[in-house]
Specification:
Oligomer: single chain
Distance between the termini: 29 Å
Structural class: alpha/beta
Number of strands: 6
Strand content: 5-15%
Largest sheet: 6 strands, mixed
Number of helices: 8
Radius of gyration: 20 Å
Shape: globular
Order of helices and strands: HHHHEEEEHEHEHH
Length: 269
Amino acid sequence: MTAITPRKPYPTDMSDEAWEWIAPLLAQRAGPGRKRTVDIREVANAIFYLDKTGCQWEMLPHDFPDYRHVNYYYREWTRRGIWDLVLERLREFARVIAGKQPEPSAAVMDSQSVKTTGNGEARGYDAGKQVKGRKRHIVVDTLGFLLIVLVTSASVQDRDGGVELCDRVQQRFATIKKIWADSSYRGELVEYVHLWCRFILEIVKRPTEQRGFQIQPKRWIVERSFGWLNPFRRLSKDYENTVESSEAMIKIATIHCMLRRIVPALYVF
């Protein structure tokens, strides 16, 4: 019998050390039912490959599991909130490595409008950025690690998306005492946070004497976080039919970035 030759690794493949971090969270739940016959590590590698290269599901290389299996597990893990669990575990450890407490006490919020393709849900026009598509609202900690992501129609104003973001922060992160944001969040949102939230929303204003581009305190952190997503071609536009899938692709990209920080040997060349 001819032995099966292992496939040649892709740059997006996880090392053994990286896989150890997330394998327990992707393991099959105990109980009756059909046992898995697909290699879950290869499924995860295929999802990372798709997010980084921007290929279509049907275009996944044939040395990965069948794309229908990969897509099934992607949707199942998205539905069950697995990406959130992985993000939480990696973020807490990455913060400890950086000398921080596991849970953040401050954060930064911002949004990014991107074009969409196809006829998926929640599409609109951002008149300010002149972009037709969707808007990515995110909250990150002071290290730039993702805390909350919300995808809406691009027509949703920052202050309206900010209400949902602040509500989610209020529910999930009891330790946060302050959030910084730019001037697009001023006004009603500041009053809303003052009345209903335990933290402070501080607007970072551009100095009146400023001429040309200058890095603004705290705001650069979240801009850098958006920059970390740029190498992931699946995020160059919003290709997803649902906002749930859009949010999942952002979480997966963030997981990949955080694994690189925690396990320097993540990529196998």
